[in-house]
Write a structure and sequence with these properties.
about 160 residues; alpha+beta; Pnp Oxidase, Chain A; 8-stranded antiparallel beta sheet; globular
């Protein structure tokens, strides 16, 4: 049996891999949403595994909801263009961030300096916005099960066609 078609095109994977704004969300059993800005994100070269990093001390409800439901949604958005992709996953996993994650977190911060700088905010603002302690971060890992175009415009909300 052939492997399932990829949800993301190489272009979408490159957008996420570059390091753009990431908002992580879930919900509780009563469908009340929880969300938090990620301070880092990675994606595997094939788009089959995504990891986002959030502050444990600032994300209590979000982490409880993901632990209880396994469900996660992440919106990746490029600040200057508003090009946006939403990924949804089930069976998300949680783990403490560690030293091995530090290079990816530094790379994400550097990208966000560039991205947010393009809309007029300097490095000091970006560093304050993404400040964290490594020992306070939780890595949320998931396999994307659904992908949507969320760029403002007529295609917003439509499922992404499977990559060829």
């Amino acid at each position: 049996m052939p492997p399932p078609a990829a949800l993301l095109s190489p272009d979408h994977i490159a957008l996420i891999d570059k390091g753009v704004s990431a908002i992580v969300a879930s919900r509780d059993a009563a469908l009340r949403p929880s969300l938090m800005r990620a301070v880092g994100a990675t994606i595997s070269p094939d788009g089959g595994q995504v990891t986002v990093f959030v502050s444990r001390s600032q994300s209590r409800q979000l982490l409880l909801d993901i632990a209880a439901t396994g469900e996660v949604a992440v919106v990746f958005s490029q600040p200057l263009s508003h090009r946006t992709v939403q990924l949804k996953g089930r069976q998300a996993t949680l783990r403490p961030a560690g030293d091995a994650d530090a290079p990816a977190l530094r790379r994400y911060l550097a990208s966000m300096e560039e991205e947010i700088g393009a809309v007029g905010f300097g490095p000091a603002f970006v560093h304050a916005m993404f400040a964290h302690r490594l020992d306070d971060l939780v890595a949320i890992g998931f396999t994307p099960a659904e992908a949507y175009d969320q760029t403002p415009g007529p295609r917003a909300g439509t499922a992404l066609p499977h990559a060829a």
